[in-house]
Amino acid sequence: MGNNSTKVSNLKTKLENFFIEVTETLIIFVAIIIGLKIAFNSRTPVVTVPTKSMYPVIKPGDILFVEGWDVNSIKPGDIIVYLGYDPIKYHRWIYIVHRVVKIVKVNGKEYVITAGDNNIRSICLIHDLPKQCCYDVSYVKSCPNVIKSGFYPPPGLPLKKCPVFGEPKGFCIVGKVIMYNNTTPLKIPYIGKYLPHF
Question: Which residue, among 24, 22, 45, has the nearest Cα to 34 in the 3D structure?
Answer without folding.
Answer: 45
